[in-house]
Amino acid sequence: MSFSLLKIDHVQLAAPKGSDDRARQFYSDVLGLKEIEKPEILSKRGGVWFLIGNQQVHIDIEEPFNPAKKAHPAFVVENLNHLKAHLSKHNIEYQVDTLLPGANRIYINDPFGNRIELLEWK
C-alpha cells in the first residue's frame, strides 16, 4: 500500500441548533476538556470544539438532530472512581459495564443524548 493512516485527528458529535452553551457546560465544565477556537469560516455554523490530549472533539450542529445512541467515542480516564463521584455530584447518570477484559468502564450520555464511553485500563 502506498499510504498509511496515522492517527485520529478528531471525533465529531452532533448537537441541535442553539446548544453551544450546553456543550461548553458539559464538555468543558463537567468533563474538563479545553475549548479551542473554531476556524472563523466554520464558527458561523455554530458548534464548539474541544481538546483532549492531542486529539479534538468537535460538537457541531446537525438539523434535523439525532443523537448517536450506539456509535461513540471512548475516552481513557485516570481515576475512574473519582470521575464517577464527580459525575454523580453533577447529577449525571452513568452505566457500569464489566464486559471488556482489563478495563473498568462506564457509559454516559452528553446533554444531547450522544453516548460516550469512559474507561480506565487495569
Structure, described:
The protein is α/β, with parallel strands linked by helices. It has a single domain (10-65, 72-121), classed as 2,3-Dihydroxybiphenyl 1,2-Dioxygenase, domain 1. Helices cover 20% and strands 34% of the residues. It contains three helices and eight strands, in the order E-H-E-H-E-E-E-H-E-E-E. The strands form two sheets. It has a four-stranded mixed sheet with strand order 1-4-3-2, covered by helices on one side. Strands 5-8-7-6 form a four-stranded mixed sheet, with no helix packed on it. Strand 3 (48-52) and strand 4 form a beta hairpin. The protein is globular, with a radius of gyration of 15 Å. 17% of the residues are buried. Residues 7-121 form the VOC domain. This is VOC domain-containing protein. InterPro entries: Glyas_Bleomycin-R_OHBP_Dase, Glyas_Fos-R_dOase_dom, VOC_core. It holds the Pfam family Glyoxalase.
CATH topology: 2,3-Dihydroxybiphenyl 1,2-Dioxygenase, domain 1
Quickly count the helices.
3
> What is the CATH class?
Alpha Beta
What's the total number of strands? 8
Placed side by side, the strands forming the largest sheet appear as: 1-4-3-2
End-to-end separation in angstroms reads 35 Å
Number of domains: 1
Helix content: 10-25%
In short:
The protein has 122 residues and is an alpha/beta fold.
Question: What structural keywords apply?
Answer:
four-stranded mixed beta sheet; 122 residues; 3 helices; 20% helix; alpha/beta; 2,3-Dihydroxybiphenyl 1,2-Dioxygenase, domain 1
